[in-house]
Amino acid sequence: MAKFVLDFEKPIVELEKKIEDMKEFSSSSNIELSSEIAILEKKLGKLQKEIYSRLTRWQRVQLARHPDRPYSLDYIKLMAEDFVELHGDRLFGDDKAIIGGLARFSGRSCMFIGHQKGRGTKENLFRNFGMPHPEGYRKALRLMQMAAKFKKPIIILVDTPGAYPGIGAEERGQAEAIARNLREMSKLPVPVIISIVGEGASGGALGIGVGDVVLMMENSWYSVISPEGCAAILWRDRAQAPQAAEALKVASADLRDLGVIDKIVPEPLGGAHRDPPQAARILKAEISRELNKLVKLSPEVLIKRRLEKLRAMGVFSE
What is the distance between the alpha carbons of residues 206 and 68, in angstroms, rounded to a whole number? Predict the structure, then answer.
């Protein structure tokens, strides 16, 4: 059962608790309640499908931020083997909001890079709430260039509320670091697969978000600005975030229709936080499928296709 419960999940959790209590009572009292439990479990399944099939965009944003949702290191642990984390940008320091390193994935040596949030106040402060500084983006670029040198595919996991907007980050060139990554990622000679696994906010996400294929978890979100930031600008009221989320079209289905992402990765019923191992298995299968296609292409074809894809975004005819 989930530790943290969102408002729209409460009817489900209450019914789950009732089923759990009945099972415990049946076991401890040696009373047969299997038929009653089966009825409740059937009701639970129907309720779950009903609630999760009609989620609003704002509710999906809430699911993407769920504190029990798997983060990049969780996915790497569940999907890959022999992960060796690499540190530092060789210029300033080691940004803990971005992690990266080599690992074996589906029989191949790959470079993993991702945003990393923390659980609990202490770890979140250590990870800066998943908001990278310039040295984080420069570390990511160093690892990408290392992967290119040794011809290793790159797998990137995006999950950030945005790049850190502090004075220190600006002084050290936050905008330049992100812009340089956009340019350099567009011409990497190895396969690059992007997976948006949680939050994908603005340039903070885009700074490690340019690739051959962009996958997006069903209950993640991706936008030029957070719903709260948009609401604060347009209505001067962050409480209007649900309305902003609808206007921004932040959900995976919206972005697929707009051609910003390539494929939606389904999640276990109720969200990835309900069954992280299953969520990781589904994501691994999708990444493996795309990687098997990309490794067959030459560096020249990869770069050509990637640039064509980027240039086609935002183009429309009346």
Answer: 24
Q: Which CATH class name applies to 61-312?
A: alpha beta
CB 220 within 8 Å of CB 245: no
Sign of CA dihedral 147, 151, 155, 161: positive
Task: Report the amino acid identity of residue 233.
Answer: I
Q: H/E element holding 297?
A: none
Quickly tell me which residue has 């993993």 as its tokens.
112
Q: Spell out where the chain has E strands.
A: 81-85, 98-105, 108-115, 154-160, 192-201, 213-217, 221-223, 263-265
Distance CA 271, CA 234 (A): 30
Report whether pLDDT(317) > 80.
no
Q: How far is CA 298 from CA 114, 214, 291, in A?
A: 25, 19, 13
Task: Report the relative pairing of strands 192-201 and 108-115 from DSSP bridges.
Answer: unpaired
CB 224 within 8 A of CB 244: no
pLDDT score for 35: 84
Largest CA distance in the chain: 70
- Contact call for residues 218 and 256 (beta carbons, < 8 A): no
pLDDT of res. 1: 47
Instruction: Provide, for the chain, the percentages of residues in helix, strand and coil under a 3-state DSSP scheme, each rounded to the nearest 5.
Output: 55, 15, 30
Residue keyed to tokens 């240039």: 311
